[in-house]
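PROTEIN DATA CARD
Card holder: Alpha/beta hydrolase family protein
Chain length: 162
Origin: Murinocardiopsis flavida
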Amino acid sequence: MVSWIGYDSPGWTGAVSGGHADDGKDDLQDFQAGLRTTHRGAPSNNTLIGHSYGSTVVGAAARNDSGAYADNLVLVGSPGVGSELTDLKFDGGMKDIHVVMSENDWVRDSESYQTHYFDKQEDPRATHVQTDPETEHDGYFNDSETPEMEHIGKVVAGTRRD
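Structure generated from the sequence above:
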């Protein structure tokens, strides 16, 4: 697992625009391409997880030129990816896009943050992950015993079976 934080995170007012996501998309795409290029042995299962505005950066990278060089995309507490999910380019298919959004996530109900094609994430062909309804926006990764963490773990490990 690698935690990539190679973009400047926007402040509250900057989060409603896609400027920071566009600024970081090339670096994320290059990083992902480097993982593919340098990997040896059996094919790897590369999963790109973006939380909150990080999912908007993932979306920008996946719309960029040749895509995101990942087998799975996991969008957690996402305000949107900047386009319809069908516009994302990566090495998987629609079922390999996992949308994680709790009923208790403030992003779901915040009009000011639903500016990055948030409603386009409702595509029924994507995998919509069951969550603990009590999970809050900043709590997705706090408890390994939630349905969303079990699902994400299986995606990352390559053991998810539908």
